[in-house]
Amino acid sequence: MRADLLELIEPFRTDESVLFAVVYSIDGTVLASHIKSREWIPTLEWAEKEVEVVARQVLEENLNSVEFRLGKEGILIRPISRSMLLVVGISDAASLYKVRIDTESLRVYD
Q1: Among residues 92, 97, 100, 107, which is most buried (max CB within 10 A)?
Q2: Distance in angstroms (rounded) separating the CA atoms of residues 84 and 24
């Protein structure tokens, strides 16, 4: 399972605009991650706290994704199954649109 999740986030490793890509379980546990720089760890710690709340909203309201903007950077949170969320940090708004499209078809079945 972990290998599948690492494969899922692999395309984000080469995207210059992606700052991090993390798969969380709905309880906020990190299942797989890629972080370009240690400077994004505080943002990921914030995301871990938000994942539980956002996961509940996404699943209850059947949302495709949730986005946050932090200055120029953005964070996309998208469900990839009933029990997992993909969280991607992006360096600018234009890239957020691209990542939104790139992640639309990602699904893991559990």
Answers
A1: 100
A2: 6
Model pTM score:
0.82
Tell me which residue has tokens 């991090």: 20
Task: Choose among 14, 18, 74, 10: nearest CA to 66.
Answer: 74
20/43 Cα distance (integer angstroms): 10
- What residue ranges do the domains of the chain occupy? 2-103
Q: How far is residue 4's CA from residue 27's CA, in Å, rounded to a whole number?
A: 20
Per residue in 34-73, pLDDT (tens digit) is 999 898 888 878 777 777 788 778 778 888 888 888 777 8
Residue 48's pLDDT is what? 78
Residue 14 near residue 77 (C-beta atoms within 8 A): no
The residue type found at 78 is: R
CATH number listed for the domain at residues 2-103: 3.30.450.30
